[in-house]
Amino acid sequence: MEIEDVKRTVRIKQWAEMAQACLESGQTVKEWCAANSITTKTYYYRLRQVRLEALKKATPDIAMLPSQTKGHPIFAELVLAENGLAETQMKHPNAPAATVTIGRLTISIHNGAGPDVIACVIRAASEISGDASV
C-alpha cells in the first residue's frame, strides 16, 4: 500500500468517526458543525467521501462510480440464472425491472413500460436534474 493510500484510509476513518459523532450528538448538522468549527460544506464533502469509499468496498467489481463518470450514464449488465427473472417476479411482482439514477433523482421502471415511455421519462428526468448529456 502506498503512502497516499494509507493517508486516505486514515482520513476516511477519521471522517467516518466525525459523521458518527454528529449523528450521535442529537444536534442538527449545522449546529454540530458550528460547535466543532467546521463548515457544513466541509462536513458534507467528507461524508460523501466516506460513502463513496464504502460503496467502493461494497461493489469492488464496478470500475467507475457515479462521481467518476462526469454526467455520463452507467450501464451494468445483470446476469440472472435461468428462470431467475421469472422466479424473482413471482416472489416480488411489484419490484421494478430496472432503476435509473440521475443526480438525486431515482426512477424505477417496471416490465410493462414501453421504450417510448422509458425514453420520455429519462429525458424529462435529465431536464429536471439539469444533466443534458443523458
Provide tags for this entry.
134 residues, mainly alpha, 2 strands
* Percentage of residues assigned to helices: 40-55%
Gap between N and C termini: 37 Å
Q: What structural class do the secondary elements suggest? A: mainly alpha
Domain unit count: 2
Low-confidence stretches: none
Q: Classify the beta-strand content into a percent band.
A: 5-15%
The outline comes out as: elongated
Average pLDDT level: 75
Helical segment count: 5
Major sheet: 2 strands, antiparallel
Taking all Cα atoms into account, the compactness measure Rg is 20 Å
Number of strands: 2
Query: Which oligomeric form is depicted?
Result: single chain
Textual characterization of the structure:
The protein has about 130 residues and is mostly helical. It has two domains: about 5-60; about 65-134, no CATH class. The chain is about 55% helix and about 5% strand. The protein has a two-stranded antiparallel sheet with strand order 1-2. A hairpin with a 2-residue loop joins strand 1 and strand 2 (about 105-110). The longest helix is centred in the first third of the chain and has 23 residues, at about 5-25.
Topology:
Layout: H1 3-25, H2 29-35, H3 40-58, H4 84-91, E1 98-102, E2 105-109, H5 115-129
Antiparallel strand pairs: 1-2
